[in-house]
Design brief:
Blueprint (H helix, E strand, L loop, with lengths): L1 E7 L4 E7 L1 H11 L3 H17 L8 E7 L6 E7 L3 E7 L11 H7 L3 E7 L6 E6 L5 H13 L3 E9 L5 E11 L5 H10 L5 H7 L3 E10 L5 H7 L5 H10 L2 E4 L6 E4 L1 H14 L1
Parallel strand pairs: 5-10
Antiparallel strand pairs: 1-2, 1-10, 2-9, 3-4, 3-6, 4-5, 6-7, 8-9, 11-12
Helix pairs in contact: 2-4, 8-9
Pfam family, one: HSP33
Keywords: Chaperone, Cytoplasm, Disulfide bond, Redox-active center, Stress response, Zinc
GO cellular component, one term: cytoplasm
């Protein structure tokens, strides 16, 4: 379980904060992620939730980051009011020598695809190159360009000596119309030496509303089985030769088993539809 909170103050500054510690701890354990992989994925989770900040208007974000590195592809979705899901696909982290965010992003320039949906706005899709050396900076630049609002992302992930996540939280601060630019810059500087809770109290931010966030995958046996229909005839016949098969969902790790008869019925149905 996690949360997202919305604050505003008299200087027309908005803060959206989130804590996904429990969710990221569960995902790290589920996918057996190292401290480095878990940190990168957690920062993407935090940023995705902050991008989908207007959950009350059913904002949804679907993100795909082709890292162009042995880490592979990172997926994250924030959807249906208060759900989050995501994973790293084809991770070969053992081939990565850079073990901190700055060095990793400096070496590997990837492609980030972001799809944003809302009941109040038209769908928005953007594809950007990850040229910055900070995940916060990547999402800050994207938000400024897409929303035309002065913004700053601040995400933080802590791990213990065993590489396990102990904290995953962050916030987005935005300068609303007629907002105080001086205060905006001041708060971003103060955050270097103060906690978010201290800043919220000191700068008189009032809580507008809070939404709980849950990790939830949308996979099902029917969806997984339907994906087999996309295989070529030769690939389906290869599965038939193998007999019973088991497919694991990348998002939640759930296993789905299919018998030889399941595959045979699939092939027969496909042949009848041709």
């Amino acid at each position: 379980m996690g949360y997202i909170k919305h604050y505003i103050n008299s200087y027309n500054l908005r803060i959206i904060s989130t804590d996904l510690t429990e969710i990221t701890q569960s995902v790290q354990k589920l996918h057996k992620l190292s401290a480095f992989s878990a940190t990168i994925l957690s920062k993407v989770f935090l940023s995705t939730v902050l991008l989908a900040k207007d959950f009350k208007n059913k904002e949804s974000i679907s993100l795909q980051w082709q890292t162009n590195s042995p880490l592979g592809i990172i997926f994250a979705d924030a959807y249906n009011v208060n759900y989050l899901r995501g994973y790293i696909k084809t991770s070969q982290e053992n081939l990565i020598k850079e073990k901190n965010e700055k060095e990793f992003l400096a070496k590997y320039k990837g492609i980030l695809s972001i799809n944003k949906y809302s009941l109040l706005k038209h769908p928005f899709k953007s594809i950007i190159k990850t040229t910055e050396n900070s995940i916060d900076k990547i999402f800050t630049d994207f938000t400024i360009k897409s929303e035309q609002i002065k913004s700053e992302f601040h995400t933080n992930v802590d791990t213990d000596i065993n590489g396990q996540i102990t904290k995953a939280s962050g916030f987005l601060i935005q300068l609303l119309p007629q907002g105080n630019m001086k205060k905006f810059k001041e708060i971003n500087e103060l955050y270097k030496n103060q906690t978010l809770d201290e800043l919220i109290k000191k700068e008189n931010f009032g809580l507008i509303y809070e939404t709980k966030i849950k990790y939830k995958c949308t996979c099902s046996r029917e969806k997984v089985f339907s994906s087999l229909k996309l295989l070529s005839h030769s690939e389906q016949n290869e599965l038939l030769k193998r007999g019973a098969i088991e497919i694991t969902c990348n998002g939640c790790g759930k296993n789905y088993s299919f018998t030889k008869n399941d595959i045979l019925n699939l092939i027969k149905t496909e042949n009848n539809n041709e």
